[in-house]
Design brief:
It contains four helices and six strands. It has helices spanning 3-10, 47-58, 86-117, 138-148; strands spanning 18-26, 33-41, 62-63, 122-125, 132-135, 155-158. The protein has a three-stranded antiparallel beta sheet with strand order 2-1-3, with helices on one face. The protein has a three-stranded antiparallel beta sheet with strand order 5-4-6.
């Protein structure tokens, strides 16, 4: 006897189509969602669906199909408690410009000869000692400089006519 014939003889529902259902529920009291998957015979709403749907209906919770998104639109700063005043911003810009002006003479002095041999390479300048470090990669130039001066603030120039990358 074949497998199909044996199953037909043992299971009266063998060969009847199955219903596969999915029930998605959302909780109104938390961010939790639940997905329930059930398999039932044709023609009847399975027990699992009645049980789950009844559970959520009794609590006043909704299925995912009826939930409306209530997303809060957030605009503004990531950390609104950290706000710089205009004076502090101006002071920071002035300090940055003063540091650039301390590094620029070293770059201007070496630029004509380095453009010939190292065009579009990078030069990290340490202004207090006047030392500079050159490499094809800006990160490597900074790393080499930080090995010698671990606590120093550096300025990195690109060795070209403007001293910067790209145009604005």
């Amino acid at each position: 006897m074949g497998e199909a014939n044996r199953r037909k003889r043992l299971d009266s529902n063998y060969g009847n189509s199955l219903n596969i259902g999915c029930f998605i529920a959302a909780s109104t009291s938390s961010d939790a969602h639940a997905v329930y998957l059930g398999i039932g015979r044709k023609g009847n709403r399975s027990l699992w669906y009645n049980l789950i749907a009844g559970t959520f209906e009794n609590k006043g919770e909704k299925t995912m199909t009826s939930v409306k998104p209530t997303r809060t639109v957030r605009r503004g700063r990531l950390f609104p408690e950290i706000q710089w005043s205009e004076e502090k911003k101006a002071q920071w810009r002035a300090e940055r410009e003063a540091f650039y002006q301390r590094c620029k003479p070293t770059f201007d002095r070496l630029k004509p000869e380095l453009i010939k041999t190292h065009y579009n390479w990078y030069m990290a300048v340490e202004p207090d000692s006047g030392d500079y470090f050159i490499d094809k990669d800006d990160m490597v130039a900074g790393k080499i400089a930080h090995e010698k001066y671990p606590k120093a603030k550096l300025h990195v120039f690109r060795i070209n006519e403007t001293g910067v990358c790209g145009t604005i």
